[in-house]
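To close the section, here is one more complete example, presented without commentary so you can practise reading it yourself. The ligand is zinc ion.
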Amino acid sequence: MNVQYVDAHCHLQFEQYAEDDAELIERMRTEGVAGIVVGVDLESSQKAVTLAEKHEHLYASVGLHPNREADEWYEMKKYRELAKSPKVVAIGECGLDYYRPVEMNDEVKRKQRAIFNDQLMLAAELDKPLIIHARPSRGTMDAYHELISILEEAKKKCPRLRGDIHFFVGGIDEMHALIALDFTVSFTAVITFARDYDAVIRATPLVDILSETDAPFVAPEGRRGKRNDPLATIEVVRKIAEIRGEDPEAVRTTLLANAKRLFTLKD
Ligand SMILES: [Zn+2]
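Output:
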């Protein structure tokens, strides 16, 4: 198929799509939207691989989300086994989530860091990019600052470490630190209705941006509160061009090339 867009982060394997996934995947194909189906635990990672193996325009990422730290311990060998599929193009989503105000404590943080560190090691071993989820506690940049210091340390041992910081909500300083570490930042359809991201979208070099949806979450303006889907990538790319005041077609082709380069997608 003729790929025009890549949704760098969606969860098409979630139960929200149980009724109509085939139809939606076919619409993605006709609209030229490829997608990275991202696992959040072992079961959803397995499902992501199954979907990706069935459809040429879908790829998978296998990982354990930081908010699942109480439900599953990271068994690296199971994820390593899954990553043998040629359709697995990344490790994650993994990272640090300090947003939950009630349950957050040092023990939770310690577990999140340990699980994240294992996934960093697997990504380095397999030479695959990471898909990182980092969410700071309210009113701070704590999770980003910690992430940056973890990645700085890890890069000393594993210089090829790279990846995408999904659903980027950091500031311009955090963006610069992360792209200096060979990470891209990606934006969802939240940018179609919230203006908080405009400054960072303008400040980021275009070659360091990916488009994503995080579907089924955060549907774009006009569909807010409803289930989202990877077709919204088209709106995300258009909005990035509008915010930057750049030619939409030039932005589309650059963002497409960025995703192909990071995830080593074939034409
Ligand atoms: Zn996600």
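Once you have examined the tokens, check your reading against these statements. The pocket of zinc ion is lined by residues 9, 11, 38, 93, 214 (CB under 6 Å). DSSP finds nine helices and eight strands in the chain.
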